[in-house]
Amino acid sequence: MTTPCSTRLVAPSPLSFFSIPVVPSAARFNSRPPPPRLLLRCCCGNAEMVNAIRVHELGGPEAMRWEQVEVGPPGDGEIRVKNTAVGVNFIDVYFRKGVYSAPLPFTPGMEAVGVVTAVGPGLTGRKVGDVVAYAGKPMGSYAEEQVIPADVAVSVPPSVDHRTAAAIMLKGMTAHVLLRRVFKVESGHTVLVHAAAGGVGSLLCQWANALGATVIGTVSSEEKAAHAAQDGCHHVIIYTKEDVATRVKEITDGKGVNVVYDSVGKDTYKASMECLASRGFLVSFGQSSGSPDPIPMSDLAPKSLFLTRPSMLHYTGTRDELLHSAGEVFANVANGVLRIRVNHTYPLSEAAQAHADLEARKTSGSILLIP
Ligand SMILES: NC(=O)c1ccc[n+]([C@@H]2O[C@H](COP(=O)([O-])OP(=O)(O)OC[C@H]3O[C@@H](n4cnc5c(N)ncnc54)[C@H](OP(=O)(O)O)[C@@H]3O)[C@@H](O)[C@H]2O)c1
Q: To test ligand 1's pocket by mutation, which of 169, 283, 288 has the most ligand atoms within 8 angstroms of CB?
């Protein structure tokens, strides 16, 4: 009889996603040699030591340390997964900085693809060797191996390689939820997507185009404008050179857009509201520049606007919803609607550099960490 380890790599409650504590001032990432590895002793015969990124205190990218941690056997309803590709998402930055809270210390990361190395007692429907992906919860994917609940994992179709799957799970399901459930984009709609060359942004543009919408994207640079155009934007606005609201009025003959997908927040809120048509939807799904709060209700009145702040997790909370969303994403990879740009890969141990680049707006498309 074996005894499970008490200190497995386990994520904090997904509810901590939604508590908003203090945001410390932005810290710069200074390149420096990795800290000495923390060598822990196994508490029982079942645990193994694996390398993982750990955050012991909130801060800049340098707060992420490469350490050894213990990973125990899977318990009831769980599987152990050896990660082969780990997706980097802006939400990982929010947790590292404390925009969203998690008990310290924690292992960041909310998306990975890997191979099942053990299944919990009595678990059916999963076996060692299965290739699985998960996105959203639990946190802890910046690790060589981790234990997750079996019901958050989905099978990766053999036609989709590990890196593509890791690059698209969280971002693709977010795009699905935003375009098909939060606001149902139809042919004839005009949509505005901020950060159009980003991880989620590039998928929103490709998918909205395929749905028959006219797609307007905003980006910071010429290089990103070229990506956005290749990804289905009919019009690209380089916001560092042009006024977004003025250009949207020109493009739409003064009518405005039916929906704005805004993940930038503070810096874009005002323009987003100006760009909306009468009875338009502001879908505020992130705050890479900070939160625009507080928003007075009176802002909505002049055009009878709708405002929503969705989380992908709230739309993929049941097993059926998760399988539906992931299925739509993989189907659209297979049929060519979604082309995945894995523009940046880093060794897992260099997660800090990936975060520094993401926060400095140096990245486009998806970012992967390779264990
Ligand atoms: N609600 C949900 O369920 C959900 C799920 C997934 C992601 N998200 C949100 O979606 C957004 C995009 O996530 P992602 O992982 O795909 O990242 P990303 O879009 O690849 O990267 C962020 C991009 O935002 C733009 N940006 C504008 N102002 C910025 C600032 N002050 N700091 C950093 N970037 C800024 C930059 O593009 P330019 O250079 O073109 O300005 C940057 O490249 C994030 O806000 C994230 O929280 C929400």
A: 288
Residues in the chain with pLDDT < 70?
1-46
pLDDT of residue 137: 83
User: Could you tell me which of 52, 53, 72, 74 has the C-alpha nearest to residue 62?
Assistant: 53
Distance 89 CA to ligand 1 centre (A): 8
DSSP annotation of 189 reads -
Q: Which residues on neighbouring strands pair with residue 74, listed in sequence order? A: none
- 90 touches ligand 1 (CB under 6 Å): yes
Instruction: Specify the CATH number for 187-309; select among 3.40.50.720, 3.90.180.10, 3.10.20.340, 3.90.1150.10.
Output: 3.40.50.720
Nearby residues of 215 by Cβ (< 8 Å), 6 or more positions away = 190, 191, 193, 205, 208, 209, 232, 233, 234, 235
User: Closest by alpha carbon to 171, among 139, 214, 136, 221?
Assistant: 136
Question: What is the reported pTM?
Answer: 0.90
Q: Which helix (H) or strand (E) holds 85?
A: strand 78-88
User: Can you list the alpha helix ranges (DSSP code H) found in the chain?
Assistant: 90-97, 162-176, 199-210, 222-230, 244-251, 269-275, 312-315, 319-334, 351-359
Task: Write down the CATH number for the domain with range 14-168+340-370.
Answer: 3.90.180.10
Mutate-to-test residue for ligand 1 from 28, 97, 176, 200, highest number of ligand atoms within 8 A of CB: 200
Q: What are phi and psi of 369, to 5 degrees?
A: -110, 135
Distance (Å, whole) CA 356 – CA 354? 5
Rounding to the nearest 10 degrees, give the CA dihedral for residues 288, 292, 293, 299: -140
Q: Residue 287 CA: which ligand 1 atom is closest?
A: 45
Using the mean position of ligand 1's atoms as its centre, give its distance from the Cα of residue 197 in Å.
9
- Domain boundaries in the chain? 14-168+340-370, 187-309
Predicted local distance difference test score (pLDDT) of residue 293 = 80
Q: What are phi and psi of 323, to 5 degrees?
A: -65, -35
Do the domains at 14-168+340-370 and 187-309 have one common CATH topology?
A: no
